[in-house]
Write a structure and sequence with these properties.
This protein has 14 helices and 13 strands. The protein has 451 residues and is of the alpha+beta class. Strands 9-4-11-10 form a 4-stranded antiparallel sheet. The chain has a 4-stranded antiparallel sheet with strand order 5-8-7-6, with helices on both faces. Helix 1 packs across helix 6.
Length: 451
């Protein structure tokens, strides 16, 4: 947890450093690390940013924040020694995501520039420096802790020494299998959607309508509210069918042919290409599933459920043959928690329809067919759900929660390695803390030299 907090705060610190350096204004120096000053204004700015982002501050902010900044400098210095670099493509992808998020929340590029009081190129540089330093710090930490080896006996000894109040509580967890089918959509519904998209494209190509206006009015994509603009993204961040068409567009005044992806049907307009990244607008329409189609799919799954209960097939066999959920079809229908990478879910981590279905089941029981939203495609699908296992809320133990305790042990070991490295690095580095900034209880020893 402390490592994660440091990285978040370190990212803010990195931005503050860049901002001060760019302004090149004479400032009051609070700390000096090697030949690198930490300015009072940096500390103040970071403090305000942390308050705004609701990041935790341990103790006095005028002690904790400059120490965080000093630690950031030590890691960056080590990254320089180790020649740690970050590919520009990786940084650009993260910057694009951040800029797109800001535009989505604030409404437009102009409003983002107004909020930051900077031009878009300056904002991009702001985030690029931030993200690059964060990755470099992570790489240094990874290099320092990469040789950790954990055995079951190590975990057992660690657990046996934990005070009772340090053993975490584990909420109710379930393991779930699922079979889903996508109800048939009538051909006429698909043709109606395509006809609407062709009409929009023709209106834009004839100069009668602005693509962005039509996107705001009609698109079912999240980007519709901002005129359908995706922001600059790489090919890997787009559906393959979308990317294949978008990257072949050359005339920003023309609209693409209709493109089908797993999310629905699109028309696309090019805004700008920059190397391996592209900015486009699109209008997305999704054919609607009728009540009759949902009923037919439910009847089909109810019949399948009866066959499973009668022993004509197992749930696992049915999942492999019938299920249309590509994420679970080849794993016997087993759902995997994207947050943890395990098969265990807290109830709040499940789709709400699945959570409601399994709440009344006992392990081994199968739900009646349920109608649920496909979270990726925002369309109605029909599912059968089987509760495989239920683990009631309890205090963590080795039998049920070995992976959790192993993770705690690994984090504890990594924290000890990093803490020891920092104290050694502090001892080897010139550090000067100015009067007025010294009366602190720092987390790490050795900042104030005694000789």
């Amino acid at each position: 947890m402390r490592i994660r907090t440091f990285l978040a705060v370190g990212a803010i610190c990195a931005v503050a450093i860049v901002t001060i350096a760019r302004n090149n204004i004479a400032e009051e120096v609070a700390w000096t690390i090697g030949d690198d000053p930490i300015y009072k204004s940096e500390i103040e700015q970071t403090y305000q940013d942390m308050l705004q982002d609701r990041l935790p501050i341990k103790g006095d902010p005028y002690c904790a924040i400059p120490e965080m900044m000093a630690i950031q400098r030590l890691y960056i210095h080590q990254a320089d020694i180790d020649t740690v670099t970050v590919p520009d493509a990786q940084v650009n992808q993260q910057v694009d995501g951040q800029i797109n998020f800001l535009i989505s929340n604030l409404g437009s590029k102009e409003k983002v520039e107004e909020y930051f009081r900077k031009s878009m190129p300056e904002i991009r540089e702001y985030y690029a420096d931030n993200i690059r330093n964060r990755y470099r710090v992570q790489q240094v930490q990874s290099n320092l802790t990469k040789n950790i080896k954990v055995t079951p006996s190590d975990v057992r000894r660690y657990f046996d020494k934990l005070p009772l109040d340090s053993i975490p509580g584990v909420p109710l967890n379930v393991e779930v299998q699922i079979i889903t089918i996508n109800p048939n959509i009538p051909r006429q519904e698909i043709e109606d959607v395509k006809a609407r998209l062709r009409d929009y494209a023709e209106r834009v190509n004839r100069g009668e309508s602005e693509f962005s206006t039509l996107a705001i009015l009609y698109s079912e994509a999240p980007e519709g509210a901002r005129g359908g603009e995706t922001g600059f993204v790489g090919r890997a961040m787009l559906a393959p069918e979308y990317a294949a068409v978008a990257f072949n567009l050359n005339d920003p005044k023309k609209v693409s042919k209709i493109v089908e992806t797993e999310y629905g049907y699109h028309i696309i307009q090019l805004i700008e290409k920059r190397g391996d990244r592209i900015n486009t607008r699109h209008i997305l329409l999704r054919p609607k599933v009728s009540d009759k189609d949902l009923t037919d799919a439910s009847v089909r799954l109810d019949s399948l459920r009866n066959d499973i209960l009668a022993g004509k097939a197992t749930f696992e066999e049915a999942a492999a043959v019938v299920s249309q959920d590509k994420d679970t079809r080849n794993s016997n229908g087993v759902m995997v928690n994207a947050e943890t990478g395990t098969t265990h879910f807290e109830m709040s981590q499940l789709p709400q329809e699945v959570a409601r279905a399994v709440a009344s089941l006992q392990p081994g029981e199968i739900s009646k067919p349920i109608i649920m939203k496909d979270p990726k495609r925002d369309r109605d699908i029909v599912a059968l759900v089987k509760l495989t296992n239920r683990i009631d809320a309890h205090r963590a133990n080795l039998r049920d929660d070995f992976q959790l305790i192993k993770g705690m042990y690994e984090n504890s070991t990594k924290q000890k390695i990093l803490s020891d490295w920092l104290e050694k690095k502090i001892a080897e580095t010139y550090v000067r803390i100015e009067d007025g900034w010294r009366g602190c209880e720092f987390e790490h020893k050795g900042w104030i030299k005694t000789n």
